[in-house]
Amino acid sequence: MRYIILVLFSLCGCDLFATGAVTQNRQDNDPVLFTIQIDQKRQTIHNFGASDAWSTQFVGKYWPLEKREKIADLLFSQEFDSQGNPKGIGLSLWRFNIGAGSAMQGEESGIATAWRRAESFLTADSTYNWQKQQGQQWFMKAAHDRGVRQFTGFVNSPPVLLTKNGKAHGDGSGDANISPDKYEYFADYLTKIAAYFRDSGVPLTYISPVNEPQWNWASGNGQEGSPYRNTEIAGVVEALDKKLIEYGLDTKIEIPETAQIDFLYSRNSDGRGNQAEFFFGRESTVRELPSLARKMAGHSYFTTYPVDRMIEQRQKLWESIQDTDRGLEYWMTEFCVLGNVDGVLQGNGRDLGIDPALYVARVMHYDLTIANASAWQWWLGVSPYDYKDGLVYIDNDFYDGEVYDSKILWAIGNYSRFIRPGSVRIEVSRSDNLSPIDAANEILVSSFMHPEDRRVTLIAINYSEKDREIKIGTTGMAAGTVTEWKRYVTSSQYNLEKKPSVLPDELITIPARSVVSMTSSVR
To answer: I want to staple 484 with a disulfide (CB 3.0 to 4.6 A). Which of 155, 239, 242, 501 is the partner?
Structure first.
């Protein structure tokens, strides 16, 4: 039996959400039928997340409690207000930046701005001070209090006490800023931090010991960082695996946080490419280590436009991972909008509007449906910068200021709030047979089911400047019916706002430039 389900969006100045209504302002004569193929299951989704670097070290420590709580609710809350609208986007993973100690060096660190320096638990006399990174610890606990249960401790640079040059950035050579004889100390340092958080009641699910190892991270990069060649990463992983086992910790190791996804499958001359094969191929020295998570972590930077290149690279990525090990997952662990994008987004400046939000939603769609990402994580949860890098924005002030939500926050929320850990992506076909490239500027639909409560979630993106009419049906649904769909809309007018529920068998006009979540349990 087929049940027709419908997706609705918002249009500035118009109310197009009356159940069963077909708008008179039709743009196309033929509606597109999207068919959810319940039996065609793809990857399991583990989380949607963001990171605490670096502003939370000030916001979480100095800002008024009321404003901290407001930010935490926007990022992590799974509650609804009195009108049934989500209070926040319900992130399910939070990335904790394990700082290298550039903050204690001040201007001598070679990192120009205090916003991008970080404290370290490891002090100058080689003892540990757990009162450091208080602001970040506050946000970590706030996330846990609101239901987040997955945390990644990620490292941009080894602590300055262990680096070759005594700084939290590389020397420009491309060599790791830590010598092999310090790997064991580095591993012990990370394991002590993991043990501390376990004992504090907010355990680290993962430790990511390197970050974007393809970049040289000299002082001019303006933040903590260290390059690594693949052999150097393997040495760190081997040492960390031994320490995690020695301490009896369940924390897993996440690698390689590649700077852009083509480094996962492409070869290069300096030993920092072809990482899927190096770390999980048959000749790998680390693939069988018990603490190593069976996933490849990569960043979507510089691979999102033009659209044909974005799709091609994600196809190659997934093919390479499957060729290496069919049990290996791909996690997209960092992304924000960098610079000019494909003639759509101009400049680096902060933009709280719908245009960058729709662009990010489209990247998410292809990361999830072409690269088969099992997790998707944004860069900065909180940003003080004039840049398209934040979910929540704040004034550039260490102690107080205003808080601003963004459309990127709410667009990501269409995914993170309703696609909960353990959901499985299920295939969707379309009657117009548009290819992924041709559909990029039209309607994009993806679907997910949570197996425990049989809740289905659809995410639809209308990237075009025109209204579209669609129908959505289902096949392969065993012993169950869909009676109504709850809908939440993000557009220039709405922030994940609840709209009237939709009954089956309706034709709906989808307004331009909007994103919607629909949820329903199969009974």
So the answer is: 501
